[in-house]
Amino acid sequence: MNRERHRGFKFDWIIIVLFLLLVGFGWINIISASHDGEIVSYFDTSQLYGKQLIFLGLTFVLIVLILSIEAKFYERFASIIYILAMLALVGLFVFGKEINGAKSWYGIGSMTLQPSEFAKFATALAVAKYMSDLQTDMNTLKDQLRAIIIIIVPAVLILLQNDAGSTLVYASFFFVFYREGLQQVYLALALSTIILAVLSLKYGIVISGIAAAIVIFGAYFFRRKQKRISILQSISVFVICIVFASGVKLFYQNVLKPHQQNRISLWLRLEKDPVKLEQMKKEEAYNLIQSEQAISSGGWTGKGFLQGTRTTGKFVPEQPTDYIFSTVGEEWGFMGSAFVVILFMALIIRILYLAESQKSQFSRVYGYGVASIFFIHFTINTGMVMGLIPTVGIPLPFFSYGGSGLWGFTILLFIFVKLDSNKINEW
Amino acid sequence: MRKLLLLLTVVTVGLLFIARLLYLQVYNKEAYSIFDDTAIRSVYDYPKRGYVYDRHGNLLVANQPSYDVMVIPREVEPLDEETLLEFCSLLKITEEEYHKKLERANNYSPRLPSPFVPQLSKEDYAVLQEKMRKYEGFYIQKRSLRAYQTSIGANVLGDIGEVNQRNIANDPYYRMGDLIGKQGIELSYEDVLRGVKGIKFIQKDRFNKNIGPYKEGRFDTLPQPGKDITITIDSQLQQYGELLMTNKRGGIVAIDPKNGEILALVTGPSYNPNLLVGRERNKNFSRLFLDTISRPTFDRGLQAQYPPGSPFKVINALIGLQEGVVKTSDMVSCRMGYYYGSRKLTGCHHHKSPVDMNEGIAQSCNAYFVNIYRRIIDKYDDAGDAMNKWAVHAKSFGLGNYLGYDLPVGQRGRIPDGNYYDRAYGDNRWGSTYIVSNAIGQGEVEATPIQLANMAAAIGNRGYYYTPHIIKSIEGDTIPSKYTTRKETTIDKRHFEPVIEGMFDVYNKGTAATLRIPGIDICGKTGTAENFVRIDGEKTQLTDHSIFVAFAPKDDPKIAIAVFVENGYWGSRFAGRMTSLMIEKYIKGTITRTDLEDWILTHSLEEEYAKPYSGEPFKINGETTLQIIDKVQSSQESDLDSSVRIEPASNRN
Prior knowledge:
The complex is a heterodimer of chains A (427) and B (653). Chain A is mostly helical. Chain A has 18 helices and 3 strands. Chain A has helices at residues 2-7, 13-34, 48-68, 71-76, 78-95, 115-132, 141-160, 164-169, 173-179, 184-222, 231-255, 258-268, 274-284, 286-296, 309-312, 324-356, 361-385, 403-421; strands at residues 97-99, 102-108, 111-113. Chain A is globular, with a radius of gyration of 23 Å. Chain B has 653 residues and is α+β, with helices and mostly antiparallel strands.
């Protein structure tokens, strides 16, 4: 492989093959999810699949462009790209076009462009740039805060545009920070925050308080004396836990919108009243139920291309975009959907592997950022479609219909491919 | 560790998802049924139900279209006040009924179609059809209902009605709202008449809009029309029988002895089969079914099980001859009854004495038959063995068990054997004198009119019969072989002649001498059956049933017949007259004995039937007077001649 790289083709072919498989299979499923009746031509641009084909064509132009730009360009211009992307997000408040309640699009003629899709790679570049700076030390609170500000800015801007799903993506940078030296305690903190939040919602403050007490005082008694925190500290941690748990409950009840409450309630099975539950399911879980049923009905091998009854009948709303995985489930069955899961795992693991082998820290951090972003998209999207996590609107990379998303992910991935190809020049 | 966190998380999540997929798609997957697929609508196309013709090719039962409003509760969108009002007024129901019906359909199944308002009139259908698409979840299903071309034979023709839950559970072919044969031939020949409904699978979208055939119609089927059948009934004879039975209760069964075909199966009172068509079916059926006094849904030709009385004597004569315990010339004296020692076991009426077999049959002498019956039983050392032997003979005439005909109702009748009396009296604690009533068809022997008619056929055939049946032919098919297989009795052919002569003499010089038909040699036997009811807890005797069994002509029987008239007093009084008329009608086509006909049509038994319910003391048998009425007119004469008319089922307008 290395010899090959020396001779000319310097790019990682595994990633490219995985990429081609994903966009290819993705397009096939968009055909299924969007066709109505007869397919006259796959190039019919009045249909979603025809449009997506154009997006795909442009994608290859984009790839050539990205790969032909000097690798150093990305590192050098990372900050500028980041600032441009943030300006694009800010500009939405003035020039943005509202679609489905989210003001996340620029309208250019009949086309729309979603800058949040491009903000991801920009943020990844900025994070890589900042962390690879020799002056940055992720063990200092000051630098931690600076790094967090880099990801908080796009997150908040996107949240303000009413696109809560995309905001979540920026949480994935936690993996990057951790890889680059963020203290263990943050990992513990992150985990216990999630656990405590779930506990307090599901079982109430008393139970979560008891659980916290057991863990904290367990830790107190079983740790060696030297490492032990004082009783006073333990008690304050406990108090913080209680306050946090109550805070979660208050947040859930007062800040979250009713539909968000319902989604969480359905996920954690909080509602016990069967009448209300039925009502809730009708209002909130329609997509989820339809999508789960579609996947279930696929069985081992699926019903075949264009043969999915629920897909053809358009029973699953948003199927070409966020719920595209249900098409895979119905028409290609367990074999097809497991194949997609494995493709994504392979892609992410391959990126991680290559990232670890980078000599430049910038490339490594960026690679980690790419892997993390793909991971969070994949996990949240498929997890939601399979009913494992609450409904969050977020696309499946390379599968979901949409030009911005496809291009955003392609740029994200191929900048890394370019950086990777350049690693021998690093010396 | 820092390097591994994301890697491990990715692997964990990936495996978790694959596990979830396995659970959803492999473990949790229900067996796929196209009928359960929410994305597929199955549309049924009901075939024409087979027509029914009589033996001469007269169309008896045809079809008429009917339109049911069906509902799939899950797909119903709440209607706004105005639309709901309009819908209800089109369906001619109240809002309250609307909600009740919807609830009931939903309780049955939210996803399967249920009938909402069945059987619209043509006018309602025309108006509704145009507006139907406004009402989500409702649609109109076309079916075919029966159109009876005649007002006779309700007991034979039967009817069709909506399937019940049990039908659906027994046979997955049926769906809620389907029609199924409920009685008569509609029930017996459901599979033949029904055909197979066609089905179209339509792919729909989530707004319930049809978006074309599912898989280009690969699984669709065309309806297969039901087969036409021809039944053995002679409608002229049937109609005449029903006319004769007017104002009486009872049954007439006429069989062609040559092949077991049922020529007429009359029950009285009957009803017009058109009552059980259309929207009024349920109401009318309950009214008929709940009439427990005249019981019009009780087929007396098939279900009325009584001691047959004297006609059974001929069986004892045949068994006696077969067992060799009696010769035709043996004389038995009768002193107005049969005496055992000084005890009179059975009475008799006044006739000359002593009598031989011929006279015994012709005069229906009780003493004669008790005598030979005792000889049969006493031939064997053990009365039980003798009874068993006797029962085998009797049962070979189709008595004492279901005959196996192709109508859905019936009774076994009863021919007691040794075990029966062992159970009743204790082992070996009885003898011939205990059971002499069997000699004269009383006591424990019971039979239905169709069994008696079949018995007459077996005698007329000199020792064999064909299982009586109502099916003559099925379009493109054959009738079951059991109806074309000869069944032999245990009596040798040579023993029949003297008995038949006796039955012939019943007409010549015996109890039916006044009932002769010029030009036809009829062999018959009168019968009278005592009967009792409970009135206010007290066993009360009513006027005897009038029974007559015959076949004709004597040497080449074309018809075997049993007539049974409730409380008609003695055999030749009602049943005998009706028998002669039926035979003449069938063989000659016209009636010469108009005196008999006039008598039957001007005499009613309705007063007799009202007695037990009057609450007053009443008299029976000889102490009664007959009710004379104006001559009953045949209201049905024109029915069969008219061309096929198809009228709307509902006459609500």
